[in-house]
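Module 6 notes. Inverse folding takes a fixed backbone as the condition and produces residue identities as the prediction. Think of it as a translation problem where the source language is geometry and the target language is the twenty amino acids. Below is one complete input and output pair. Work through it position by position during the lab.
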């Protein structure tokens, strides 16, 4: 073991690292001054094999967050990924809001899709969590993070500007899942769902994502049922104008330019808009 990081070929669920201190239930763990759970990083570097697992053992909160960030960044870039260290760090630091309960990171798609999950209290208002200045950070948490509501909005803006995506979802029983990818969100859903379903015939492994039934099902969402209120305003605006930018929407409807930039990026990822220069047009 070096620097609190342990590489495992198989899931380390029966070793001493899972001691009684880590067997507390989520409801019993409510302090951010002590880390009680190891972080598990799964690297899917071979679609035909189980993932490699690297474990970051508990330490003091600041060192723990830095160790996870550095390890995920190193492993993702070794796979060929291009997501930068600063974006990974912003997502990792959000584990503090989950009180560090069972953090799991999955490195997929040759390092270009990274999924962060936990079993903490979750995020009730997911859209607000993506707006600058909104934060649930307590004074206790601000000993270790900035806590000014900039992490997730910055990460989302960066990914959208690069043609990728950031998605926030509920975990299965409790907690949150944040997925960042260099691909638009509809492609990520198609990729992850298709890879999770075993092929029933050998020939199916040769089908491209654009041909697979799951890709067809998720790559073409219905605009009028998927659009947010702000998304609908963008479409309405383009019904009367040839092109639009964040400042145009800010003048017309209020909200900040970064808010409209994120909305325009989301509509691009849905395939409804395309960016031409500094403006956006309907597809």
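Target side of the pair, the amino acids:
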């Amino acid at each position: 073991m070096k620097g609190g990081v342990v590489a495992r070929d198989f899931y380390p669920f029966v070793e001493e690292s899972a001691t009684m201190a880590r067997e507390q239930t989520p409801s019993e763990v409510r302090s951010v001054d002590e880390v009680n759970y190891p972080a598990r990083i799964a690297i899917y570097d071979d679609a035909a094999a189980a993932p490699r697992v690297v474990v970051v053992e508990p330490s003091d909160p600041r060192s723990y967050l830095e160790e996870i960030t550095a390890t995920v960044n190193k492993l993702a870039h070794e796979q060929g990924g291009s997501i930068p260290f600063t974006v990974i760090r912003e997502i990792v630091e959000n584990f503090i809001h989950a009180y560090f309960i069972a953090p799991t990171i999955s490195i997929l798609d040759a390092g270009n899709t990274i999924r962060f999950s936990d079993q903490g209290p979750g995020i009730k208002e997911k859209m607000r969590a993506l707006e600058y200045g909104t934060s649930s950070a307590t004074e206790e948490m601000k000993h270790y993070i900035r806590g000014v509501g900039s992490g997730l909005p910055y990460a989302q803006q960066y990914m959208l500007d690069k043609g990728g995506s950031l998605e926030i979802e509920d975990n299965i029983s409790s907690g949150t899942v944040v997925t960042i990818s260099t691909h638009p969100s509809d492609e990520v859903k198609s990729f992850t769902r298709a890879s999770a379903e075993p092929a029933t015939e050998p020939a199916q492994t040769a089908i491209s994502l654009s041909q697979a039934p799951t890709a067809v099902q998720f790559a073409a969402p219905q605009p009028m049922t998927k659009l947010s209120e702000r998304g609908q305003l963008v479409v309405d605006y383009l019904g009367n104008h040839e092109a639009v930018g964040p400042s145009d929407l800010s003048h017309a409807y209020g909200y900040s330019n970064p808010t409209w930039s994120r909305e325009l990026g989301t509509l691009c990822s849905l395939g409804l808009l395309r960016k031409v220069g500094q403006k956006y047009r309907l597809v």
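Reference fact for the lab report: The first helix runs from residue 61 to 78.
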